[in-house]
Write a structure and sequence with these properties.
The protein is of the alpha/beta class. It has a domain of about 150 residues: TPP-binding domain (Rossmann fold), CATH 3.40.50. About 40% of the residues lie in helices and about 15% in strands. It has a six-stranded parallel sheet with strand order 3-2-1-7-8-9, sandwiched between helices. A three-stranded antiparallel sheet has the order 5-4-6, covered by helices on one side. α7 links the parallel β2 and β3. α6 packs parallel to α10 and α8 runs parallel beside α9. The chain binds adenosine-5-diphosphoribose (APR). The site of adenosine-5-diphosphoribose has 24 residues, from β8.
């Protein structure tokens, strides 16, 4: 449990920053009952990502990939934003959060009310045709594996291993990371590239980088200035409340 002093330190840093952005990963959605990828209980403990989540497997053996995807999408469909998502939405309303760059595909930041979200790895709300690019809503999913009207295979509109990051999301994220003066890095193991380079871009540009995670990561203390160790759903509401108090005093 982080101390009040650590929470206040983050609140002061946020209050005085001019351009705050958040960079989020699977850990922020764990309290919404969506499993993370790595570590205990992670999706990759049961499914080898090279076998199930690589674009070439998806094309060659869609039935196999869709086994894993169907399970993941079922959780995503039911999931609701948790206090961590809601705290970031509040920070945006307070005009203290410029945007969120998320590696998550669960759409929970948008459901929480954030209006400026960059989906770095796509968004599972949509299915996209591999041949004609037509999009369908996830809610309309019927058969598995699903097919387009043109009969080609549909894929969740998310970035698989072996696929590039959508160019617009990549450019905008790099730009935001390079211009921010404070980045909150929340619930990510910070090991998957090119996403993991974003905190480095922010740091090199002189930003303060604050991590919120259950445990240290490879960037802790090297790229990040400090780590607030704890659950995002407990830490973030406390930080946002503390920002309000700093704001009042100033
Ligand atoms: N609060 C804060 N942090 C948490 C919580 C929580 N409640 N629960 C877990 N974490 C932390 C873990 O300690 C870990 O560092 O969240 C992190 C989750 O790491 P990963 O599962 O590796 O997720 P992520 O970093 O988002 O993965 C990046 O890898 O497989 C790909 O495309 C996938 O976007 C994903 C990318």
């Amino acid at each position: 449990m982080p101390t009040e002093e650590t929470i206040k330190r983050a609140a002061r840093d946020i209050a005085k920053a001019k351009r705050v952005i958040a960079f989020t990963g699977a850990g922020i959605s764990v309290e919404s009952e969506i499993a993370p990828f790595r570590g205990k209980g992670g999706l990759w403990e049961r499914y080898n990502p090279e076998e199930y989540a690589h674009i070439s497997t998806f094309r060659n053996n869609p039935e196999k990939s869709w086994q894993m995807l169907a399970e993941m999408l079922e959780h995503i469909k039911k999931a609701k934003p948790n206090p961590a998502h809601l705290a970031l939405a509040e920070l945006e309303k307070m005009r203290k959060l410029r945007c969120i760059i998320t590696q998550n595909v669960d759409n929970l930041h948008q459901k929480a009310g954030n209006t400026s979200v960059i989906d770095f790895h796509g968004n599972a709300r949509w299915l996209v045709c591999l041949e004609c690019d037509r999009k369908y809503k996830l809610d309309d999913l019927e058969e598995i594996p699903p097919r387009c009207e043109c009969r080609a295979l549909l894929k969740p509109d998310v970035v698989f291993f072996g696929e590039p990051i959508p160019i617009d999301a990549l450019r905008r994220s790099q730009e935001e990371a390079g211009k921010c003066d404070l980045m909150l890095v929340i619930g990510t193991s910070a090991v998957i590239q090119p996403a993991a380079s974003l905190p480095i871009i922010a740091k090199r540009a002189g930003a303060t980088v604050i991590e919120i995670n259950l445990e240290p990561t490879p960037i802790t203390g090297i790229v990040s200035d400090y780590l607030i160790e704890g659950k995002a759903g407990e830490v973030l509401p406390r930080v946002v409340e503390a920002v309000k108090k700093v704001g009042i005093r100033e």
